[in-house]
Amino acid sequence: MNYRHAALSSLMLTSLAAFAASRSGDAPVTTVTPVTVVASPLTNNAKTLTQPSTASSVAAPKSSTSLLASNLTLAATTVASPPSPCASTYAQANTAALPEITVKSGGINGWDERYKGRPLSLLNAAVDHCQTFDGTTSLVGPMLYAKGRESFGLASFDAAGGAAYKFYNGNLVLKAYKDAAGAHSGLIQSVSPGQAYNGVAIQPNQAGYTCAGCYWEARMKMPVAYGTWAGFWLLSPDDPKNRGHLEVDGIEYYSLGNKRGHHHATHRWSGGRSTGNNGYSLSDEIGNGDWHTYGIDLRGIAKIDGKPAIVIYMDGKEIDRLVTTADYFTTPFYYLVNLATATPKTGVVDYPQALWIDHVTAWKPRG
User: Fold this and answer.
1) What is the DSSP string of 165-179?
2) Which SS3 state, helix, strand or coil, does residue 260 take?
């Protein structure tokens, strides 16, 4: 999700969406009928919109008008948050170490669908940081920053106070929209630009937040739209004397452009170039427009063929592992969540669309 990807975003998304769509087996979309909804972060006034009808179905893609209405309908629904987002909801009795996967067991890099669904364990881990969102949450520090980096994709990230950020019912809503000045969207991160790039000191949970060897998780509700480029990812702060950083993409999601695709990756950046490992999993649930948790495990408790591996989770279940190097598990990372846009296979980006964020949490091993 690094901004250096932006120049290739359109080509990559078009090719990837075409490939993934051929595997997805998505059902035909449905026709639409009018309903009335109340005001939401995407609409300031009640108005007549449209939503899917079960009366009939068609094979053609949704029109821009009906899709926009679908986005607004989703945004206007009642949002229910978990009772205690900063407390673990996962089983604590599981073993802390995950069984090792070997290459000879088959699959890509030794991992395949046979291992999908292994439950997350947070045994001997405790919440170290939990970012929730209410009317007092600041997007100008000291713990959370809007537009902490250069824009990427087709829209410009709003600064704090812009229309791309709205607090609603205990959630932060990132909105991609268009106005007379062009296309806009939003990004948040847990350190300031100076801490990310210029070596300004980070004091976790006081001035910025980073964590090494942690399990990270975000609970989010993805857009249902074309042109979505949403992500939850981690970066290590740049060393001003030796430019470069590590990156872990916990989830990149393209919505209707590839609605069953869960994309994740690692990158080691140096001199404007990256090396790493890409992963891709299919999920029927990810495109349902509902709440899901997306997790990145950097505790160093998993391996593939004797090599350390990052574990990627969705809703507390393992969906992939990425082989990497040992320094990923000892390097401090900060988190980012964004809603960018990029050209989909339809060639048309739908505005407005919204990414809902309930909380971002980091668990740190005890001791």
Assistant:
1) EEEETTEEEEEEEEE
2) coil
- The mean of the pLDDT values for the chain is 77
Domain 3-365 listed as CATH 3.30.830.10: no
Q: By percentage, how much of the chain surpasses pLDDT 70?
A: 69
In the chain, domain spans = 3-365
Residue 308, preceding bond cis, omega within 30 degrees? no
| pLDDT (average), residues 48-53 | 28
Q: Do the strands 215-221 and 182-189 form a parallel or antiparallel pair, or are they unpaired? A: unpaired
Burial 230-249 (b: 16+ CB within 10 A, else e): bbbbbbbbbeeeeeebbbbb
Structure tokens at 292: 């899901």
Q: Is the full-model pTM beyond 0.90?
A: no
Instruction: Label residues 199-212 b or e (16+ Cβ within 10 Å = b).
Output: eeebebeeebbbbe
Please state, in angstroms and rounded to a whole number, the distance separating the CA atoms of residues 193 and 142: 12
Nearest alpha-carbon partner for 2 in 267, 195, 209: 267
